[in-house]
Amino acid sequence: MKIWIIAGLVVMIHFVLFAQDWNHSEFELRYLEQSVPMRIDPITVYDVTSVRITEILFGALYSTDRSTARIPEFADGEPRLSEDGMSAVVKLKPDLKFSDGTPIRVSDIIFTWKAATNPKSFSPNRQMYRNIANISALDSSTIRVTFRHPVSDARRYLMFFIVPKSIFLSTEIDRDLTYCREPDPTSGGYRIFNKKGTGQEFLFVKNPYYNGKTKPSIEKIRMNVHTDILGHVDNLRNGLADLIPFVPPAKVPVIKQDSRFKIELYDANQFDFIAFNLENEFLKFQEIRQAINMAFNRKEILASFFNDDGDLMSGPFPPTHSGFNPDVQPWPYDPNMARTMLQNMGFEDSDGDGILEYNGKPLEFNMLTALCRDPDYSSVISSFVEQMRNIGIRINTQEFLYDAFESKVRKGDFDMVYYTRKVTQEADYSPFFMSDQIGIGGKNIGRYSNPLVDSLFVMANSTLDFQKRVELYKEVHKIIHDDCPYVFLWYLKYHAAYIRELKNVSIDPYYFFTTIEEWFYMKD
Q1: Which CATH number fits domain 30-242+501-521: 1.10.10.10, 3.40.390.30, 3.40.50.2300, 3.40.190.10?
Q2: What is the per-residue pLDDT across 476-496, written as a single tens digit (0 to 9) for each?
Q3: Residue 496 CA to its chain's centroid (Å)
Q4: Parallel, antiparallel, or unpaired: how do β-strands 520-521 and 502-503 relate?
Q5: Are domains 30-242+501-521 and 267-493 of this chain identical in fold?
Q6: Of 398, 295, 304, 301, which is closest to residue 339 (Cα–Cα)?
Q7: In this predicted model, which residue has the larger pLDDT, 374 or 280?
Q8: Confidence of residue 524 (pLDDT cuts 50, 70, 90)
Q9: CA atoms within 13 A on the CB side of 259
Q10: Are strands 520-521 and 28-33 parallel, antiparallel or unpaired?
């Protein structure tokens, strides 16, 4: 009898321990990031880690479902679009509340738009509001949105996240406000329950008042920061994480061979490039920029460091964008032609040090880079420096922490800069290349200016004719390819990995957690 009781207790204890372990996973999703989130409110957010968190914490009038179709979140049905496409009327759902139980009002939506577009606000994402001329209240639950140009789908412009007006003293939002670092209350499916240190760990819990797409199934989400990106896979395999948004390319085969995990390929919705400062005395010449493009073997780099998981860029629009021009090919790798072009311009190596000069001045540039522990990123930079030296160009890399890096980019304090730009498939790319975006705080970081490109973008953004807009974008794509304001690198695909018990996962390329409310745990 004692033996039976002891055996029974052992089985019971084993079951309890297993259940405790499983219940932990059932109610809490643990995921890892490489960098500390900088600002996690929708207005001042700009880094990738923070963007993902805003998707967890905030809601919008419209969102997307698993098939990326636009659906109402806080809006009560579809917008009523005017015949000329210049305005839309949107009604709010009843009983919308922030995470502290206070109502989400029309005034909060109007405030969010005003704060994000206030020239005095720190608002890196101001471009997403560019086509909204005004938002006004028709009554306590209805707004009218007026557009600068005709639109065919008003929902596209009403997917910005809502913040509470009552928290702020004015529409001038400074990124050092407490709310920008620890937003409370929030409007989405989750709220911040706890934060440790300087953002190394966040615990998010369900917002009991959320009345958006659907009630979240997972009770808690815990985000931890581990700067060693290669260690993320080890944490996943050792049961210390349930999901990692990015699997380093070298580790993809390891995860694929482990039956405990699922691995999912998704568009990174970012393109990498090296921007030239066209105010530089040498880089203002198109021939030099073209030579640099031809001297960098991007195809080999994409294969070596990223397992060919991506596409080479030939211009400003990636293959997923309607403006992509398939007739424009990426610049070919031809270092001999590149060196010949420079020599034809009068550059020569007069002192035999391997670096070309013009009138005694070396062909030398300072290249701004962000401090990063990603070995692939560092290898790309090193390869670029080496391949430029092969044609007689010296590149001096200058590495800075993220805030200092972004400050220098905004001020134009560089000759070249390696940059990654996160974009949605339907993003408005015009601010990156239009002349009116030149200057401190503007999106045209390279000071590129072409009046024809300006006019084509204006026409494309103002037409309701989709096919006409596509043709205008394709023309822009070709012109910018030829002008070479950037070394357009690649549009990458990433791998995410997660435990098999995590179900109904769908990954939004830009925000990642768009459908987080629908995710749940179930033991196989």
Answers
A1: 3.40.190.10
A2: 999 999 999 999 999 888 999
A3: 15
A4: antiparallel
A5: no
A6: 295
A7: 280
A8: low
A9: 1
A10: unpaired
DSSP string, 14-38: HHHHHHHHHHHHHHEEEEEESS--S
Per-domain boundaries in the chain? 30-242+501-521, 267-493
Q: Which CATH number fits domain 267-493: 3.10.105.10, 3.30.1330.10, 3.40.30.10, 1.20.1250.20?
A: 3.10.105.10
Report CA 494 to chain centroid distance, whole Å: 13
Classify the phi-psi angles of 402: left when phi > 0, otherwise alpha if psi is within -120 to 50, otherwise beta: alpha
Helices (H), 316-355: 335-344
* H helical segments located in 311-445: 335-344, 375-389, 402-411
- Tell me the pTM: 0.78
Structure tokens at 179: 């709310």
Task: Walk across the sheet containing 80-81 and list its strands.
Answer: 80-81, 87-91, 142-147, 132-139
Helix and strand numbers, DSSP H then E, in the chain = 13, 21
Residue 101 burial class via C-beta count within 10 angstroms: exposed 0-12, middle 13-18, buried 19 and up: exposed
Q: How confident is the model at residue 26 (pLDDT cuts 50, 70, 90)?
A: low
Q: Is 427's pLDDT higher than 70?
A: no
Closest CA to 388 of 271, 276, 313: 276
